[in-house]
Specification:
2 domains; 7-stranded parallel β-sheet; alpha/beta; Rossmann fold; 8 helices; globular; 26% strand; 5-stranded parallel β-sheet
Length: 323
């Protein structure tokens, strides 16, 4: 085993996801302490553009599994391909993004390889020659520090906790990896795409969210209007999603998406611990709620006690005046 770090990149039709570039930054910091190199990995079908972008981020090499059997996402096949890449790279640490994609594949790949896995981490560093990881537990009520007993180990890091690197370096070598894939037990027969949000919730620098206080689907209109003015993503609490007022893709929280934007505006959200677990890492939190005793105010940097249907339009008008 080497002292190298391998990052597993994640992409979409429009290109690599930002979390992949964040992982490179995290890996470079770890490699400075370990004394190894940083490698990247890409899996899928027709992913040469992703590999070329990743090769320009400062990594030493990019491993690519480009196979017809990976054209449609099947966890069994993708995990098998990733396991073969990991064997080829022989790293000390493998980093995934703690997205839905990364959480599923990191668990499967770790099981295949018999490695340890620490998920949903907010910090990773080398201390006294071992890997020290920080992660929230009990729905964010406490923070745990986990020390890896040995290498190799797999880790998934939350998105938006570290700045992404720029893809402006001289291209690194790209090494194809031949994979042997079995027919997956579950097959994707059709993919139906939902209408895309104007701004990706998981990667947005500003998020405006609505909760039970919006009172219904129409209550998200002023929330969406402020989000549009700010160029922000639209979020929601679980209560609003469970009530059927907005699609699940907007849910922020323990059972939704974890976000860490520069600005998080919570309108009509009381601040249940499950919601706080998904947004408490935001740099600035603004809470709007009629209840002065709402738990959300305990973590808010700025609090407005008032009716969101009055506050949001007024706030929207002021933002528009600022241009």
């Amino acid at each position: 085993m080497s002292n190298d770090i391998l990052i597993i990149a994640e992409g979409r039709a429009e290109g690599l996801r930002k979390v992949s570039l964040e992982l490179v930054n995290a890996a470079q910091q770890l490699s400075t302490a370990l004394g190894g190199q940083v490698f990247g990995a890409v899996v899928g079908k027709g992913v040469s553009a992703w590999a070329e972008t990743l090769a320009k981020t400062g990594v030493s090499k990019v491993f690519v599994a480009d196979d017809a059997g990976l054209e449609k996402f099947a966890p069994e096949s993708y995990a098998s391909a990733l396991a073969e890449i990991v064997r080829a790279a022989n790293p000390a640490v493998v980093l995934f993004g703690a997205s839905g994609w990364g959480k599923e594949l990191s668990a499967r790949a770790a099981a295949k390889l018999g490695w340890g896995l620490v998920t949903d981490c907010t910090e990773a560093k080398i201390e006294n020659g071992t890997l020290l990881l920080t992660r929230p537990i009990y729905a964010g009520k406490a923070i745990a520090q986990v020390r890896a007993k040995q290498f190799p180990v797999m880790v998934s890091l939350r998105p938006n906790i570290i700045p992404p690197v720029e893809a402006n370096h001289a291209p690194a070598p790209i090494e194809p990896v031949s994979v042997t894939l079995k027919e997956p037990r579950a097959q994707v027969v059709e993919t139906v795409s939902k209408p895309k949000s104007k701004v990706d919730l998981g990667e947005a620098s500003i998020v405006v969210s609505g909760g039970r206080g919006v009172k219904g689907p129409e209550g998200f209109v002023p929330v969406q209007e402020l989000a549009d003015t700010l160029g922000a993503a639209l979020g929601a609490s679980r209560a609003a999603v469970d009530a059927g007022w907005i699609d699940y893709t907007h849910q922020v929280g323990q059972t939704g998406k974890t976000v860490a934007p520069k600005l998080y505006i919570a309108a009509g959200i009381s601040g249940a611990i499950q919601h706080l677990a998904g947004m408490s890492s935001s740099q600035v939190i603004v809470a709007i709620n009629k209840d002065p005793d709402a738990p959300i105010f305990k973590i808010a940097d700025y609090g407005i006690v008032g009716d969101l249907f009055q506050v949001l339009p007024a706030l929207n008008e002021q933002v528009k005046k600022l241009g």
